[in-house]
Amino acid sequence: MDTWLPSLITETPQDGYDLAVKLSRVAVKLTQPDAEIRDRLRPEYAQDAEALIAVSQVVATHFATVAAANGYWKPSK
Amino acid sequence: MDTWLPSLITETPQDGYDLAVKLSRVAVKLTQPDAEIRDRLRPEYAQDAEALIAVSQVVATHFATVAAANGYWKPSK
Amino acid sequence: MDTWLPSLITETPQDGYDLAVKLSRVAVKLTQPDAEIRDRLRPEYAQDAEALIAVSQVVATHFATVAAANGYWKPSK
Amino acid sequence: MDTWLPSLITETPQDGYDLAVKLSRVAVKLTQPDAEIRDRLRPEYAQDAEALIAVSQVVATHFATVAAANGYWKPSK
Amino acid sequence: MDTWLPSLITETPQDGYDLAVKLSRVAVKLTQPDAEIRDRLRPEYAQDAEALIAVSQVVATHFATVAAANGYWKPSK
Amino acid sequence: MDTWLPSLITETPQDGYDLAVKLSRVAVKLTQPDAEIRDRLRPEYAQDAEALIAVSQVVATHFATVAAANGYWKPSK
Asked: Domain of life here (chains A, B, C, D, E, F) (predicted)?
């Protein structure tokens, strides 16, 4: 796999959130490397409320990490 | 997507809680961008106790991050 | 919604635990604002062991935040 | 409810673990105050592997808090 | 129960991981003290992918605590 | 088991993510030591969206630990 995570530092909180989404997806890719199977699963869980909430939980966990890494994007004093 | 997360800093704990709710919802939007499908899912999970608890778990995880970012809203000494 | 979370600071650990319970319930209210539906769901999940454990998990996550906010209620030196 | 959580400080890690177990149980009591119903649920979930693992997850979350509160029981230097 | 957790400090990260596994198992023992029932449940969940992943989640939570307690096993400067 | 976790320190965030994936897998191995059974379970959960999301959650929890251990890979000042 190519470099996909050079740094946890992002310019804005929103970019950090996008990175958290990315971090949550890569583990799925590494566990199920077959893109065709993933594509088959996607419409299924994207219409399943419980799966969507579970995805949101993973994103929340990664966002905590990214936010801490960025000092919560607070202006340095 | 427009800017929806300019900062993690909020004036009060309650505003921070509202931000945590927002943070928990955006991941669902990003995973299921079709608003019509989301609208169809909503009444379903909003009447499902386990789904409501799971949503509350995601909010709790984000609230931890927002609270830390705000130094727990303690008056600075 | 009126002010329900003026502060994360509590006098005792036990008050902090009660606040964690409150924090876990508000997200449910915000997701399902209809009190009648919530009242219908309550007896159901309150007799479901897995749902009770899931509630306890949410409380644990919020308690971690409240405890950190209060410096774990350690006497200041 | 009487005072059941005067402090998060324990003498040993093992006492802290016991406190984490207690913390995980109280939320269940507060959500289902009827002792008779809880007694009915107990044998059920105590024989359900997934429920036991879920209980263990709640304990782990509370143990993290208790351990942090106690400075991980490291001898002060 | 005898002393089983004298300290969170371990010599290596791997020992810390083993301790996290132990910490995740004790909660199950305390909730289901009957060894015979636990022995009956074990082969069942050990062949259930979702249960194995849930166990791994508990271990991850405890490992976070143990790692923090050990200062991440970084050589002190 | 041989030494498989000599350190939590990695050179890059991406290496840290790979370590988090490894950490999430070892708990499964320790709970189900029979490689044949694990091999039988793998194709099953690798095609189950909810299981894949649960794996991603475990990875997220370990990644938080590894990232903290590495000071978030920020250049030291």
From this structure: Bacteria
